[in-house]
Design a protein that fits this description.
- By secondary structure, the chain is an all-alpha fold.
- It has two domains: about 1-30; about 30-198, Pectate Lyase C-like (3 Solenoid), CATH 2.160.20.80.
- Helices cover about 15% and strands about 0% of the residues.
- It has helices at about 1-25, 30-35.
- It is elongated.
């Protein structure tokens, strides 16, 4: 009996890591299919390794990409409507002209990402690291940006009408020509804050 009691905890120590590794795993077949077809509608790619993926114009509507590594990926003009990118790594990714309306990117790392002319209406960017990101002319109508870090980001000409900017770090952020949440345009010299000239 004593041997059995000693043996059971040892078994659990082997089983628990296997359980968690299965839970964190992603299907490499689905990844290969995405890289080839550039299409993965509503598929499950949680924690997938898509670093440096070259998939411009990819159709990923409704995909589950929580925790995925998409750093340096080419996602120009990708369709990511209602995609879940919570906690994803998108450092240096190119999302220019991408369609990301209602996309959930809460707490994702988008440092240095290219998101110029990207559609982010009603997207969740809460708590995101957007340091040095290029968001020129990005459309962020009604976007949720609470507690996001936009240090050194470029938002020239971006639209922030109706966006939630509570707790956002705008240190050295270039906001010249941006349409502020009130609908007014940020004047020349709007660095770190929006200067409204009536």
């Amino acid at each position: 009996m004593r041997v059995l009691l000693f043996f059971l905890p040892a078994v659990w120590l082997l089983v628990i890591p296997l359980f968690f590794s299965e839970a964190l795993a992603f299907d490499p077949v689905k990844v290969a299919k995405l890289l080839k077809s550039r299409m993965c509608v509503s598929c499950d790619l949680k924690n997938a390794n898509l670093k440096n993926a070259n998939i411009p114009g990819a159709f990923l509507q409704g995909a589950k990409l929580q925790g995925a590594d998409l750093s340096q990926a080419n996602l120009i003009k990708a369709k990511l409507y209602k995609t879940n990118l919570t906690g994803a790594i998108l450092m240096g990714a190119d999302l220019s002209y991408a369609k990301m309306e209602q996309t959930n990117m809460g707490n994702s790392n988008l440092a240095g990402a290219k998101m110029d002319n990207t559609y982010l209406d009603q997207a969740n960017l809460g708590g995101c690291n957007l340091k040095g990101a290029n968001l020129q002319k990005a459309y962020m109508v009604g976007a949720f940006l609470k507690d996001a870090d936009l240090t050194d980001a470029d938002l020239r000409g971006a639209t922030l009408f109706g966006a939630n900017i509570l707790g956002v770090n705008f240190t050295r952020t270039n906001l010249e020509g941006a349409r502020w949440r009130s609908g007014k345009i940020c004047a020349h010299g709007s660095i770190g804050k929006c200067i409204i000239v009536d």
